[in-house]
Amino acid sequence: MARIAVIPGDGIGVEVVDAGLSVLAAVAAKRGLSIELERLDYGANRYLKDGTTLPAGEVERLRCEADAILLGALGDPRIPDMRHGREILLALRFELDLFINLRPVRCLADRLCPLKHKRARDVDFVVFRENTEGLYADVGGIFKKGTADEVAINEEINTRKGVERIIRAAFDYAKVHHRARVTMADKSNAVRFGHDLWRRVFAEVARDFPGIDAEHLYVDALSVAMLERPEALQVIVTNNLFGDIVTDLGAALQGGMGMAASANLGPAGVALFEPVHGSAPALAGKGEANPIATILSVALLLAHLGHKEAAADVEAAVERAIEANRLTRDVGGSCATREVADFIASAV
Ligand code: IPM
Ligand code: MN
């Protein structure tokens, strides 16, 4: 019995999670998987109603009681500083120590590839984004706020332990998946101390993987490589902020934000799965959001639970929807969210 906590969250999160759950139900029925869902109402509405982001003790409870968490999206124009988003999503990532944000960048059809002279098969790599430190650590402060002398400081935290474990995870992945190269992206030519640590640890860890080519790129050069020679990229490892940025670029290479899935993994049993996109308030409630990013996140979730065949079923069904152009408008179709989900669920 797999126990999955479901946090639809805000905006289109609700619609795409419904779509993801209907595909999950279809594949669970086909493969005879027993899955127990627990729906949780964390998000903007709950926060505005009673001030709750995540209740005290909730992270510990999820660690013990859930095998996976499926999250839609967080973000609401009524909460401009995104406080609830940080206190839910970043708290889950940090407190569950989900140090790997694994974001596959795979384009599934030539017509979805935005690059001239490139085909879908040229875009097939994964990004290992460090997920528990860097500039996201929330260390810093504001001095003389609101005055002309104001000083705002955000410290970037890079620990040897944190840097080493994400780099090692990237190499382990490359080894297991027969990928020949790991590319580490930093900005050590300007950010001298923290990113120097990344370079040294990368070189050290690479020595343990003699068969794998260890490539270093500055992150600005990586952005160009993603557009000019994506076929040369296989496994990318980078820090939290750079990983955030390059995976939005990666989403564009897959056909747009509606196509990009992610897994947040760590040493605890429980892991968190979510589309890379946000809550898209302008699109919310219209039933037009692309559910594929969430459905592919469900495939990652199934694989994490050990249900590799079920995960492959879901991916194959997504490919059928693309072939049949049973897609939402953002990726060239004319279907509603629900129609895409129903097609994929029945294709499963
Ligand atoms: C993401 C999002 C989050 C992040 C936001 C919502 C804090 O952009 O998952 O990529 O920056 O990590
Ligand atoms: Mn992002």
The proportion of residues forming helix, as a percent range, comes to 40-55%
Which ligands accompany this protein?
Answer: 3-isopropylmalic acid, manganese (II) ion
Q: Low-confidence parts lasting 5 or more residues at pLDDT below 50? A: none
Structural class, by secondary structure, is alpha/beta
Largest sheet descriptor:
10 strands, mixed
Secondary-structure element order, as H and E?
EHEHHEHEEEEHEHEHEHEEHHH
Counted by DSSP, the helix tally is: 11
Identify the overall geometry.
Answer: globular
CATH homologous superfamily name of the largest domain? Isopropylmalate Dehydrogenase
CATH class of the largest domain: Alpha Beta
Q: Which architecture of the largest domain does the CATH hierarchy give at level 2? A: 3-Layer(aba) Sandwich
Number of strands: 12
Radius of gyration equals 20 Å
Give the integer mean of the pLDDT values: 97
Query: Alpha-carbon distance between the termini?
Result: 21 Å
How many domains is the backbone divided into? 2
User: Strand order within the widest sheet?
Assistant: 2-1-3-12-11-4-5-10-8-9
- Classify the beta-strand content into a percent band: 15-25%
CATH topology of the largest domain: Isopropylmalate Dehydrogenase
